[in-house]
Amino acid sequence: MQGLIRAIACSMVFVAQASVAAMDGKAILEMVDKNLTPESYEMYRKLINIEPDGRRKEFVLYTAKQGRDSMVGLFLEPPTDAGRTTLRLGDNMWLYIPDVGRPIRITSLQSVVGGIFNNADLMRLDFSTEYEVTAVEAQGKTYRMSLKARTDTVAYDRLIMVVDRAAMLPLTIEAYAASGLLIKTLRYRDVKDFGDGIRRPAVLETDSPLYQGYKAVMLFAKIKRRNFRDEVFTLNYMPRIKELR
Question: Do the domain assignments include residue 138?
């Protein structure tokens, strides 16, 4: 009987510790989100797809985000893609192509730029919006956090995120499928002061065991806090996103 009581007590302690860890992890993840981007902002990005033979294809995008689940993007370069726009509302994504003249539904695992970055990477919402923390461990100068997708519509079923404890910014993220397959690794570097209290990595690199020899890089610039009208994040506004610049 005493052995059973001790076992129950130990189990309760373990559950309590896990609950505290998850709670602390939630606070850490929310701080990471806050440090990566303001709640509402605009920014410019250059995306570079690098093939095994060294060939590169580059894109320049203007992006605006409002709140936790609304984001639009405008392709500025190359000329063949200029004028295309994207919209994300929660789990829903669209691509507008001027020659087509209407929004087309797209998915998170597709990629409007090709290469390793998919639409979920290009139109990423706050991590705490899409994931819950299942475990967190302090490891020297970093936290190692396990994240589980809140729904099956999220691009990656599970993330392993390593966070700089001093800066409260991500260093690396391993993205896994529900099967446990490693899809890609994301690496943040070159922390830069963008002004107005925004200090975050200016470079995001990724590679994938599914695309041997391929790499992709995302460069961030001119990140600024800005509020937008609600109509900006609608299907009807997609042809007009260029007016925001």
Answer: yes
Q: Which residues lie closer than 8 Å to 63 by C-beta, 6 or more apart?
A: 42, 43, 44, 45, 71, 72, 73, 74
- Where b means 16+ CB within 10 Å and e means fewer, 80-103 reads eeebbbbbbeeeebbbbbeeeeeb
- H or E stretch covering 12: helix 2-36
Lowest mean pLDDT among 8-12, 149-153, 192-196, 211-215: 8-12
What letter would DSSP give residue 153?
A: T
Is residue 84 in a domain?
yes
Which whole-number Å values give the CA distances from 204 to 37, 52, 159, 231, in the listed order? 14, 19, 16, 30
> Who contacts 14 (Cβ-Cβ below 8 Å, separation ≥6)?
none
42 lies in which domain range? 12-244
* CATH code, 240: 2.50.20.10
pLDDT of residue 18: 42
Q: What predicted TM-score, i.e. pTM, was given to this entire model? A: 0.87
Tokens of 220: 């961030």
The 3-state DSSP class for residue 115 equals coil
Q: Is 104 exposed, middle or buried (0-12, 13-18, 19+ CB in 10 A)?
A: exposed
CA distance 108 to 93: 7
Cβ atoms of residues 189 and 172 within 8 Å: no
Instruction: Show the CA angle centred on residue 179, arms to residues 174 and 180, nearest 5°.
Output: 35
